[in-house]
Design goal:
Elements: H1 4-17, E1 21-23, E2 35-37, H2 39-58, E3 63-65, H3 75-79, H4 82-85, E4 87-92, E5 99-101, H5 102-128, H6 134-140, H7 142-163, H8 167-176, E6 193-196, E7 200-203, E8 211-214, H9 220-224, H10 227-233, E9 240-249, E10 264-274, H11 279-295, E11 304-308, E12 318-326, E13 329-338, H12 342-351, E14 357-359, E15 364-366, E16 369-376, H13 377-388, E17 389-393, E18 399-403, E19 414-418, H14 425-436, E20 442-444, H15 450-460, E21 464-468, H16 470-475, E22 477-482, E23 488-492, H17 496-504, H18 506-510
Parallel strand pairs: 3-9, 19-20, 19-21
Antiparallel strand pairs: 1-2, 4-5, 4-6, 7-8, 9-10, 10-16, 11-12, 12-13, 13-16, 14-15, 17-18, 21-22, 22-23
Helix pairs in contact: 2-13, 5-7, 5-8, 7-8
The protein binds glycyl-adenosine-5'-phosphate.
Glycyl-adenosine-5'-phosphate binds next to strand 10, strand 13, strand 16 and helix 13.
C-alpha cells in the first residue's frame, strides 16, 4: 500500500466515491470539519452504534439507555467546569493568518524526535538482522537515548506550563524550538491565548430576553443530571450504568484529519455508578471489557494499545485511552476515565438538590463514584473504514480494491445479481430480494458484466454477492460469493438467509 499520507487520501476519496461520506454543504464549497454521512455511511454508522449499544445495554443487565436533549440548562456547564476550563491554547501565525493549537505544535515537534529514534532502531535492525536485540539497543544507543530524552524534556515542560496556565512560556517554548507554521514555514507567531471550545446559542424569541445556552460538548452531563431519575424509576442498584449515544459539538481550533476531529460529532458514552472505594476495580474491568469489544471486530490486536494518562484531569483519579493505529499513527479512539464523584458533587452544589444514593446493603447514603467509557462514533467509523480498505494483487496478477468491513457492520449484506437482464433472471433475482429484505439490507444490481459488478460490490464493502443464472431457474439454486475469499458456493435459494444469518449473528461476533 502507498505511504500513509497517500493512503489516507485514498481513504477519503474512497469514502466519497462509494457513498460513505460527503463534505457538508459541498455545493457551497463545504463547511470546515463538518461532514455528512451518505447512503452507505449512514448504514455503517448505524451498525457501529447498534454493535456498541447491544454490547453495553443488552449484554449488561445493570446498564440502561438514555437519550437526553442536546440543549440543557446553562448552569450545567458551569458546574461541570466546561465554561471555565474547556479551553485549548491557540496561536496564530501572523503571516499565513492560520490558527493552530499551541500544544499540538509542540507535541508534533516532540513526535518527530520519536520518529528519528525509530529510524535509528530500524537501521540497526537491518544492519544486525537476526542477532538484533532491540531492547538492549534502545536502552544503550546514544542517539536513541538523546532523541527520547529531548522529547520527554519538551513534553514535561509543556505539561508544566499548561498546568500553571503559563501561556507565555508555551510561546517561548515554540520559539526556542524554532517551530514554524507547518504550511508556510513562517515563525512569526502571536501570543498564545486560551479558547473555549463550546458553541453558544440562544433560547428565546427576542434578543433582550433570550437566554444564552451551549450546544453540549459531551453527552455525559445529560447522564449525570438524570442519574437519580433513572436510578429511582428503573429501581437500579449500585453498581449500575447509563448508556447514551448522541451528537456533541466542539469549536475545535484545528479540525483536521477528516472525520477524526470534527466540530459536530457523535459520542457513545456510558457512566457506571459505583460505591466509593470500588472505582479502581471497575475502572480495570471497563478497560478490559472495552478492549475486548474492539478486538471482537477482528481488526488486529496489534492495532490497539492503551495509553494510561500520567497527568490527570482535575476530576479523575485514573484515565486511559484506547489508541488505534490510524493511517496517521496511533491516536485516541476511546477514553476510559475514573471520574470520582466530581460531577455529581458539582451538580449537587450548583442545583441545590441532593444526588445521593441510599445503599440498602450498607444502610447508608453516598454520592456514587463514576467510571466512564467514552468513544467517538465517527472516530470508530474512521478506524473501521481505514483498516478495511485494502488493495490486493490476485493470482492472475490483476488488482482489486476491497473494503473488508467486518460483515456485521457492512451497510449492505448482499447484492443480488442476475447474470443477464433477460430470460426471467431479473424476476427471480427480485423475488430473492423480496424474501431477504425482511431480515437484511440487500440490493439489486444488473448493470455491467458480472465480474465488474463483483469488483464494484467488493469496493463498496458488500460481504456477499448472490448470482442468479439459468440453472437457478431449473433447480432454485444460486451462487453465493464471499467478498473476502472470493469463494463461490452453490446453495439453494431457501438456505440463503441461514448462510447469511450465521455470518452476521451478534452472538457469533460479540461472544
Ligand atoms: N465525556 C468524556 C469526553 O467527552 P473526550 O476524550 O473529550 O472525553 C471522548 O471525548 C471521545 O470522543 C474521544 O475519545 C473521541 O473518540 C471522541 N471525540 C472527542 N472530540 C472529538 C472530535 N472533535 N471529533 C470527533 N470525535 C471526537
Amino acid at each position: 500500500m502507498a505511504n500513509p499520507e497517500d493512503f489516507f487520501k485514498k481513504v477519503i476519496a474512497h469514502a466519497k466515491e462509494y457513498g460513505y461520506i460527503f463534505a457538508s454543504s459541498e455545493i457551497y464549497d463545504g463547511l470546515s470539519a463538518v461532514y455528512d454521512y451518505a447512503q452507505n455511511g449512514v448504514e455503517l454508522k448505524k451498525n457501529i452504534r447498534e454493535y456498541w449499544w447491544r454490547s453495553m445495554v443488552y449484554m449488561h443487565q445493570n446498564i440502561v439507555g438514555l437519550d437526553s436533549a442536546i440543549l440543557m440548562h446553562p448552569k450545567i456547564w458551569k458546574a461541570s467546569g466546561h465554561v471555565d476550563a474547556f479551553n485549548d491554547p491557540l496561536i496564530d501565525n501572523k503571516d499565513s493568518k492560520k490558527r493552530y493549537r499551541a500544544d499540538v505544535l509542540v507535541e508534533d515537534y516532540a513526535e518527530k524526535l520519536e520518529v528519528k529514534a525509530q529510524k535509528e532502531i530500524a537501521k540497526a535492525k537491518k544492519r544486525f538482522g537476526e542477532a538484533f536485540d532491540q531492547a538492549q539497543f534502545e536502552a544503550t544507543n546514544d542517539r536513541v537515548l538523546r532523541y527520547r530524552q529531548e522529547k520527554q524534556g519538551i513534553l514535561d515542560r509543556l505539561a508544566r506550563s499548561l498546568e500553571a496556565e503559563d501561556l507565555a512560556d508555551v510561546k517561548v517554548l515554540i520559539e526556542s524550538l524554532g517551530i514554524a507554521d507547518p504550511d508556510t514555514g513562517s515563525k512569526n507567531w502571536t501570543d498564545v491565548r486560551q479558547f473555549n471550545l463550546m458553541f453558544g446559542t440562544k433560547l428565546g424569541a427576542s434578543a433582550e430576553t433570550a437566554t444564552d445556552l451551549y450546544l453540549r460538548p459531551e453527552t455525559a452531563q445529560g447522564i449525570f443530571v438524570n442519574y437519580l431519575n433513572v436510578q429511582k424509576t428503573g429501581r437500579m442498584k449500585i453498581p449500575f450504568g447509563i448508556a447514551q449515544t448522541g451528537k456533541a459539538f466542539r469549536n475545535e481550533i484545528v479540525a483536521r484529519q477528516f472525520i477524526f476531529r470534527m466540530r459536530e460529532f457523535e459520542q457513545m458514552e456510558m457512566q457506571f455508578f459505583v460505591r466509593p472505594g470500588e472505582e479502581m476495580q471497575w475502572y480495570d474491568y471497563w478497560k478490559q471489557t472495552r478492549l475486548k469489544w474492539h478486538l471482537s471486530l477482528g481488526m488486529g490486536e496489534e492495532n490497539y494499545r492503551f495509553h494510561d494518562h500520567e497527568k490527570l484531569a482535575h476530576y479523575a483519579n485514573a484515565a486511559s485511552d484506547i489508541e488505534f493505529n490510524f493511517p496517521f499513527g496511533f491516536k485516541e479512539l476511546e477514553g476510559i476515565h475514573s471520574r470520582t464523584d466530581f460531577d455529581l458533587k458539582q451538580h449537587e452544589t450548583f442545583s441545590g438538590k441532593k444526588l445521593q444514593f441510599f445503599d440498602p446493603e450498607l444502610n447508608e447514603s453516598y454520592v456514587p463514584y463514576v467510571v466512564e467509557t467514552s468513544i467517538g462514533l465517527d472516530r470508530m467509523f474512521l478506524a473501521v473504514l481505514s483498516h478495511s480498505l485494502q488493495e490486493e494483487t490476485l493470482d492472475d496478477g490483476s488488482q482489486r480494491t476491497v473494503l473488508k468491513l467486518p460483515f456485521i457492520l457492512a451497510p449492505t449484506k448482499a447484492a443480488v445479481l442476475p447474470l443477464v437482464k433477460k430470460d426471467g433472471l431479473p424476476e427471480l433475482a427480485k423475488s430473492i430480494i423480496d424474501q431477504l429484505q425482511w431480515d437484511f439490507n440487500v440490493i439489486y444490481d444488473e448493470k455491467d458484466a458480472v465480474g465488474r459488478r463483483y469488483r464494484r460490490q467488493d469496493a463498496a464493502g458488500t460481504p456477499y454477492c448472490i448470482t442468479v443464472d439459468h440453472q437457478s431457474l431449473e433447480d432454485q439454486t444460486v451462487t453465493l460469493r464471499n467478498r473476502d475469499t472470493m469463494e463461490q458456493i452453490r446453495v439453494s435459494i431457501d438456505s440463503l438467509a441461514l448462510h447469511m444469518q450465521e455470518a452476521i449473528a451478534y452472538k457469533n461476533w460479540l461472544a
